[in-house]
Design goal:
single chain, 57 residues, alpha+beta, two-stranded antiparallel sheet, binds zinc ion
Length: 57
Amino acid sequence: MPLLDWRDARHFDASRDLPCVLCHRPTSMRSHDREPVHKVCAEEWCDQNPTSDRFHS
Ligand SMILES: [Zn+2]
């Protein structure tokens, strides 16, 4: 399982915060599918859904 690489600027939208798809609190982080999501929320989701590639780069 590859580690998430969220240092990439594509994963950060400085223009606006949107509600995290998992915890619904504002975040400027984006997944590779442009879903607003916190890094910690995505990592937790991946732990709970190990067969999904939803939040993997
Ligand atoms: Zn979140």
